[in-house]
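Hi P.,

Sorry for the delay on this. The queue was packed all week, but I finally got your sequence through. Input first:
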Amino acid sequence: MAGSQGATRKYKVWMRHRYHSCCRRLVELLAHPSFQVKELALSTLMKFVQLEGAHPLEKPRWEGSYLFPRELFKAVVRGLLSPEEDQHLLLSQFREYLDHDDLRYHTMQAAADAVARATDGHPEVPPAFWDNTFTLLSSVSLPHRDCAVSSFYVKRTEPSDKWKVAHLKEHRKAFQAMWLGFLKHKVLMILHDSILPHLAQPTLMIDFLTSAYDVGGAISLLALNGLFVLIHQHNLEYPDFYRKLYGLLDPSVFHVKYRARFFHLVDLFLSSSHLPAYLVAAFVKRLARLALTAPPEALLLVLPLICNLLRRHPACRVLVHRPHSPELDADPYDPGEEDPAKSRALESSLWELQALQQHYHPEVSKAAGVINQALSAPEVSIAPLLELTAFELFERDLRKGPASVPLEFVPAQGLLGRQDSLCTQLFTLC
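Then the structure:
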């Protein structure tokens, strides 16, 4: 009996491997030169999606839980969004499946995931991928009423209110994430240098850029370039620009994908000598406060940036040379204030840099110690530091090799501290 159960289990494992191998081969056939083969592969894969959803490979975690073959379906969508060839005809065949609410919902999620995968660490994405993605996204349309979410491709006995796929609100969230992800990478990254300079009326992009800037996060970072071009070259009046830029400074900026671009833009936006001292002081103080929890590779960028801001704006050097600086528990600076004009940064001091002089990394403590000396007139270029990573910093430390460390010690005079002791003589005889 036990041997029969073991054979059955091995057979199931073998069959599952064959099934996954078949699915992978079908996904590869979505790029076949023959459209008939592509069409057959797509219809077979979608049949597998339906059957795997009705008969899941994994047991549900609880009774009535919603199971959908997400990994298989993501592979299908990635095959449709080919970076090598135009899949327009195949996507038109796939459009008929979008009449089902569950497939439409998971298509939006899979498309957003495919865009994130394609752009992660790859600045140049093939045009075919963007064309296929736009074709797919344009095919998605949402129902206007919540009660219309009732058509399921994967057959269910009775939809549950606990399932996100059963609520139009969740569909709208997925729709927003899908389009924002596409616009963020396709439009915002190239808008400032590939689109705006060639428009007859660049000011027509004001509403789009201000709306993107108001979204927050990485989208706001990417909208900065275009807004800056409109402000300085086309007289756009945006009184809340620096206030919103100030609000983007939070601990996450040291870890986002576009950290280098963001700090390059911050350095550029704060380069004007006509900015009020209270505004620059607020940025300096916010950067210094965030530096207390920043990783070493980010500190080696932030600390020279702070020093450059003090060089450009001598009125802010009072933060360093304040004769009676406040105690740490009485710092007048309000880090929770969203308006830099009300943060009282100019009344504070840069005690954070003094704390960083005790940092465990020697290069960080050295960079923080520059503030104790008279700042030189020429600024320090932060361009070589924008792309610095933790791995590069580690490799640079390894290349330095071991340093000779001077030691101060007293040579031993005997086993117990006395050269002529009895223990020393016995030890010598042995």
